[in-house]
Design a protein that fits this description.
Structural class: alpha+beta
Low-confidence stretches: 121-135
Order of helices and strands: HEHHEHEEEEEEHEEEH
CATH superfamily: Class I glutamine amidotransferase (GATase) domain
Radius of gyration: 18 Å
Number of helices: 6
Number of domains: 1
Strand content: 15-25%
CATH class: Alpha Beta
Largest sheet: 7 strands, mixed
């Protein structure tokens, strides 16, 4: 755990690391807007360090508030440092969403995220206790946010789609992308839950993979046939990629 002030006062150097992970939470109390002040701090005081880190092919992960910060720095989705191309606006529901949602892992430019690296077993109903069906794309993670609506003008959304930058989408019970509440918890356009930059080395998502890295973190872990925690593979693939770089 490195505090941002340690980077600012040079007691720690970003160049000493291979991965920069911005966690979820409420940086600076989400004053002004979620992730805004931390984004300004990164742009104002750590711009050159971040640019060098990216140029040397460092990996960046932003989760929830970390994703909001990366969007507000401009690093996502197009690595336009200092320029916002998209935003994460207030949820359409008008309130804080705190629950589990289904996500589809998309084939994208993300350098370390391979949809085939994740395999989950579909839930078993009471009438299908002896049934086991494998789905290689859909996972369940928790969301905890009040400002998670991925939004931009149509041409920007289309560019994101055309460049294969969408990494995760909110899906319904059948595994299809949806804009319908509550399966889409915030009203994100095109059901976008996460994106990467064109280099594939910067990833951000609103759901929390770190909240499901142990089987017992899932609320219905005893009744459902789950053999591996759904969020763990993101970190496993991230570290594997960095180790082999």
């Amino acid at each position: 755990m490195i505090h941002v002030n340690q980077l600012r006062n040079k007691s720690k150097k970003l160049s000493s690391f291979q991965i920069l992970a911005l966690p979820g939470g409420f940086s600076y109390g989400d004053d002004v807007a979620s992730g805004k002040i931390l984004a300004v701090e990164l742009i104002s005081f750590l711009k050159s360090e971040l640019q060098n880190f990216i140029a040397k092919k460092g990996l960046i992960l932003g989760i929830c508030n970390g994703f909001q910060t990366l969007v507000r720095t401009g690093l996502l989705p197009f690595n336009n440092f200092g320029k916002m191309d998209v935003t994460l606006a207030g949820n359409d529901s008008g309130h804080f969403e705190c629950r589990w949602v289904k996500l589809k892992v998309e084939k994208s430019k993300c350098a370390f995220l391979n949809p085939l690296s994740f395999t989950s077993e579909v839930k078993l109903s009471r009438r299908q206790e002896n049934t086991s069906e494998v789905n290689t794309h859909v996972l369940e993670l928790a969301v905890n946010h009040g400002e998670g609506k991925f939004y931009s003008e149509p041409k920007t959304i289309q560019k994101i789609e055309d460049e294969s930058l969408v990494t995760f989408r909110y899906v319904d019970e059948s595994g299809q992308p949806t804009n319908t509440y509550p399966q889409n918890p915030n009203g994100s356009l095109n059901a976008i839950a996460g994106v990467c930059d064109p280099s594939g080395r910067i990833l951000g998502l609103m759901p929390h993979p770190e909240k499901f890295v142990d089987i017992t973190q899932y609320p219905n872990w005893r009744r459902e046939k789950i053999t591996k925690p759904h969020g763990a593979f993101i970190f496993e693939e991230l570290i594997k990629f960095a180790s082999n770089a």
